[in-house]
Amino acid sequence: MSKVVLDASAILALLNQEPGTDRLTPELLSNATCSTVNLAEVLTKLVSAGGQPDEAWEDTLSPIREAAPFTSEQAKIAGSLVAQTRTLGLSLGDRACLALGLVLKAPVYTADRSWKSLKLGVRIHVIRG
After folding, report:
1. Are 7 and 108 in contact (CB under 8 A)?
2. Under a CB-based contact definition with an 8 Å cutoff, are residues 38 and 7 in contact?
């Protein structure tokens, strides 16, 4: 199986054992990567909820195999995606996730239902029906 990209919302759903996470199978997670931008988002949520930074960082990394550095190529793509995603209100983190998927030519997994309507040249899987 080739790489898959997880959005911050998918990692948070996993950590919180939310509905839909059964779609993130152990086989899929064994090939999961995530942008460092999205990892910062997850860590921010966990620390804001009272988690200790070091423990929260371990939790943040636990579902993925690889943390992908945010590159200048991804920055250019993420910035360029604003025109196509503005109506959905996608954040920089959301666009960083999509940029990583586009660069890797890998499917993206998210818990954000609004992504269903995106047509960007990368396959998007919404884990919540």
Report:
1. yes
2. yes
DSSP string, 65-77: SEEEP--HHHHHH
Contacts of 104 (CB under 8 A, 6+ apart): 3, 5, 33, 68
Residue 68 vs residues 36, 39, 48, 54, 129: alpha-carbon distances, Å: 6, 9, 23, 19, 27
What pTM was computed for the model?
A: 0.94
Strands (E), 3-123: 4-6, 32-35, 66-68, 108-110
Distance CA 72, CA 125 (A): 25
Q: Which of 17, 126, 124, 128 is nearest to 63 (CA)?
A: 17
Could you give the percent of the chain with pLDDT greater than 70? 98
Q: How many domains does the chain have?
A: 1
pLDDT in tens, 65-122: 999 999 999 999 999 999 999 889 999 999 999 999 999 999 999 999 999 999 999 9
Give the CATH number of the domain where residue 102 resides.
Answer: 3.40.50.1010
For 102, the enclosing helix (H) or strand (E) is helix 92-104
In which domain, by residue range, is 42 found? Answer: 4-126
